Structures are given as C-alpha cells and as structure tokens.
Amino acid sequence: METLKVSAKSVTTSVAGAIAGVIRENGEVEIQAVGAGATNQAVKSIAVAKSYLAPECGIVCIPDFVKVKINDEERTAISFVVKAVEK
Fold first, then answer.
1. DSSP string, 18-86
2. At what angle do helices 12-26 and 36-53 cross, to 10 degrees?
3. Hey, how many other C-beta atoms are within 10 angstroms of the C-beta on 24?
4. Which of 33, 41, 49, 55 is a plausible cystine mate for 19, CB 3.0–4.6 Å?
5. CA of 83: how far to CAs of 20, 42, 70, in Å?
6. Which DSSP string do the residues of 6-29 spell out, in sequence order?
7. Distance separating alpha carbons of residues 40 and 8, to the nearest angstrom
8. Do residues 41 and 7 touch, judged by C-beta distance below 8 A?
9. Whether the model pTM is above 0.90
C-alpha cells in the first residue's frame, strides 16, 4: 500500500489530489501525520478527496497509531487508511 506523509505545511488540495489519484490506481492509500497541524491537514485533505472521488466511488477512513522513525528518533504518528467503497 502506498503511504503519503503529510506535514503541517502541506497544501490541502494537493494532498487531496494525490489521495484521489492513488485511490483511483490502487483502491487504497495510507496517510501518515505527526503532530496536531499535520493531522489537521490530513483530515481536511481526506474530506476534499472524498468530493473529488464522489462521482466514481465513496471512501472509508480507518485511523490508527503507528511508530515512525524521524532523525533516528521513534515518534508516534497517526495513520489513516483510506479505501474506496462502492456507492
């Protein structure tokens, strides 16, 4: 599964387009965010991607926590697995 990493400075519509593109190709995508700002951008991007995909399919979003390494430090990230579903 492809993983997209979102930061607090990520542009919502750009991330949404990437989410929609990966879902169209693979049917699912994982989005990872570390911190409140990044999580906010990720959630907004998922909402926008839903509107981009509305004519074709619906989506479901499954949140979870994952451990990631950043600069040799282990951090907790929130992971959203987004999957296409039939309308």
1. HHHHHHHHHSEEEEEE-SHHHHHHHHHHHHHHHHHHTTT-EEEEEEEEEEEEETTEEEEEEEEEEEEE-
2. 60
3. 13
4. 49
5. 10, 15, 26
6. E-TT--HHHHHHHHHHHHHHHSEE
7. 8
8. yes
9. yes
Comparing CA positions, the residue from 25, 1, 33, 23 lying closest to residue 12 is: 33
Whole-angstrom distance, CA of residue 33 vs CA of residue 3: 11
Phi, psi of 2 (to 5 degrees): -75, 140
Strand partners, 74: 69
Token output for 56: 């074709």
Q: What amino acid occupies position 83?
A: K
The residue written with tokens 């039939």 in the block is 86
